[in-house]
Amino acid sequence: MVAPLLLVLPLAVLLTFVLARSRQIRLVATQNPGLANLDGTTIRGRWLGLVLGAALCAAVFATDRGRGFYLAPTLLALGIATALTIAELAVWRAAQTPGIAGLEDRSGQRYLPRALLLWTALVAVGLVALLIWCADHQNIGWHGSAPGTAWYWESPDGLNSSAGSPFPGSHYSVPLVIALVVLSAITSIGAIAARRRPRNGSDPVIVAVDDDARRRSSTALAACLSGAVFGSALVCLLTASMGIGFFAGNHDDPMNHVANQWAQAVAIWGCLPLLALAAWAAAIILVPGSPRRVGP
Predict the structure, then answer these.
(1) What count of other Cβ atoms lies within 10 Å of the Cβ of residue 172?
(2) How confident is the model at residue 28 (pLDDT cuts 50, 70, 90)?
(3) Residue with the larger pLDDT of the pair 165 and 98
(4) Is the distance from CB of 49 to CB of 157 less than 8 angstroms?
(5) CB 70 within 8 A of CB 232
(6) Listed residue (2, 20, 1) closest to 279, CA to CA
(7) 158 is a domain residue
(8) Taking the C-alpha atoms of 47, 48, 54 and 59 in order, what is their torsion angle to the nearest 10 degrees?
(9) How far is CA 171 from the centre of its chain?
(10) Per residue in 190-228, pLDDT tens?
């Protein structure tokens, strides 16, 4: 029952958002060729970033000792955010008009998705609490890479036994926190570049369409950070809860069976909302949507 829910719900949410965003009106290149070219550059940056992020994930999985699974969401988002930020900085000069300067007050709140960032902040607090708790119950790490407390399991006949811990300790959480901090810095640079990019003209139609282009870039950058937070929380919660269930399920003690049931409940009710939130962020990144129609 758990596996179908873990697959169907995020796919349904992702499909819903993709369909809703893909139905929006596209920016017409013949009406605003300069802005359409600028907007296209940032959109292409998303796909280049996706390739870069996938390459980073593959490199870590191939060379690192067990941390690739925990770092995968953040590394994927890091690749996309880096490409988006580079694209924003690249189009900065193209947006300038020599000999023309304008004075305008542009707040970042105009372009950032408040609801998404609110959920990101809430999940980030939970992720920090989870990492602190897991560090207190430190994972012994792969190949003894980190000290910790091991859970011991032995079969009733005494022929089989194992020791381990379901909690990701500092060997896993410290690189994750560092990667999230780097991602936060890159997304901040990209969002600032999108907000402060020179505006080529003061025509109301150009201003409105340009604001939509800025909003699309800023929203995508915010979604990168959100997706990394949601995905990281999902991975940590899933591995910890399933690990508890494994160790508890291999004991005859009734209390361990209760712990197993609690672990399964946490896996379902904790991971499903995180999957839905991650699908939301993924839809924003993969399908940027389109600016609203302005003017005739």
Answers:
(1) 26
(2) very low
(3) 165
(4) no
(5) yes
(6) 20
(7) no
(8) 180
(9) 21
(10) 988 888 777 665 666 667 767 777 888 889 899 999 999
- Mean pLDDT of the 7-18 span: 59
Here the tokens at position 294 are 């302005």
Is 226 domain-assigned?
yes
Q: How far is CA 209 from its chain centroid? A: 27
> What pTM, to 2 d.p., does this model score?
0.75
CB of 150 within 8 A of CB of 243?
A: no
Domain limits at 89? 1-21+63-95+125-149+167-296
Q: Nearest CA to 170 among 129, 149, 139? A: 139
CA angle 91, 96, 99 (to 5 degrees): 165
Q: Would residue 15 count as lying in a domain?
A: yes
* pLDDT confidence band for 182 (50 / 70 / 90): very high
Asked whether 35 and 210 are in contact (CB, 8 A), the reply is: yes
| Residue 157 belongs to a domain | no
**What torsion do the CA atoms of 235, 239, 245, 251 make, to the nearest 10 degrees?**
180
Considering Cα of 206, then 114, then 231, then 72, what sign does the dihedral take? positive
Alpha carbons 128 and 123: distance in angstroms, whole number: 9
| Residues listed for the chain | 296
Domain count for the chain, please give it: 1
